[in-house]
Amino acid sequence: MTDAAAPRRLRVLAAMSGGVDSAVAAARAAEAGHDVTGVHLALSENPTSFRTGARGCCTIEDSHDARRAADVIGIPFYVWDLAERFREDVVEDFIAEYEAGRTPNPCLRCNEKIKFAALLDKALALGFDAVCTGHYAQVILREDGSRELHRATDMAKDQSYVLGVLDDRQLAHAMFPLGDTPTTKTEIREEAARRGLFVAKKPDSHDICFIADGDTQGFLAKRLGSAEGDIVDESGTKLGTHEGAFGFTIGQRKGLRIGTPAADGKPRYVLDISPVDNTVTVGPVESLDVTALTAIRPRWCGRPPADGPAVYTAQLRAHGGETEVTAEVVGEELRVSFTEPVRGVAPGQAVVLYDGTRVVGSATIATTRRAAPVA
Hints:
Elements: E1 11-15, H1 20-31, E2 35-42, H2 60-73, E3 77-81, H3 83-99, H4 106-125, E4 130-132, E5 137-141, E6 147-151, H5 168-171, E7 174-175, H6 185-194, H7 216-224, E8 229-232, E9 238-242, E10 269-274, E11 279-283, E12 290-300, E13 310-315, E14 322-330, E15 333-342, E16 350-355, E17 358-370
Parallel strand pairs: 1-2, 1-4, 2-3, 4-7, 8-11
Antiparallel strand pairs: 5-6, 6-17, 8-9, 10-11, 12-15, 12-17, 13-14, 13-16, 14-15, 16-17
């Protein structure tokens, strides 16, 4: 929600992670004349066990950083405990998806289930008009009163992909003060320093916030246990073994631990993960080419797509590029065909459709169709 979309003074709940982006977003909202209250979400059931350094965004250290930023801005500040909801909707979902052989995006799920569901519902119940975050994206209010989600002005920082799950109701109460300003991250940090915010030099968070050491495979192994299975090639020939199919992702090249080299001497990649028989299939990079996919649980950012097939661009990963597609809603499914084959597409990932800079919506990839092998 830009100032043009919200000319009146709003009661704004600013989600403050303890990082520089959310602090500057809260400061800009307050400077714009809104009545801002800061809130830090306590998402870890054991926050002292989480990070040191730059990982994560939901620790005791981060809570203190967010409180100091709120004090400098001059706004009230609270800590809300959403740890149980986060565990159920994000962490357990993450584990279940990997156990099923899929590759989830926990940041996207957190936006859908926590920041713009649990947090927003609580904010509205308390009389707030909007939830403000430090995401780089834009909400545009149209003359007919409808709202659209658009990419950030600066594509290099755009985070609209992980917001593609927001529906019309959520967009009506979303505010992204950083999305419509073409400033670099260095300039954001300089702005934070000018405002006297201690977090100006704080490193960005990386990886998955609830996996403190960044060891996703180790995290999953502790919760799912080891389960030895076979690594096979496309013909079914056994090449090696693994300790858990959950430790692999489609397109993975490193860490396969296959002793026998390929006949052509070229690297092999993970092509398929089968939780049913606990088998990981590997093969040449060309076999990763995908020409189409089917996605489920579509969510539309504002108006849904028109009936029938239409041309869009699609993004398949948070930091991936765009690719041209033809997409159509058929029943409860979204069917997508790629103009040119793409690689590294995995069930469980989100496909986000764009019409120019406008986010049309998001759906979860269920199945893929690979390109026919070259004769």
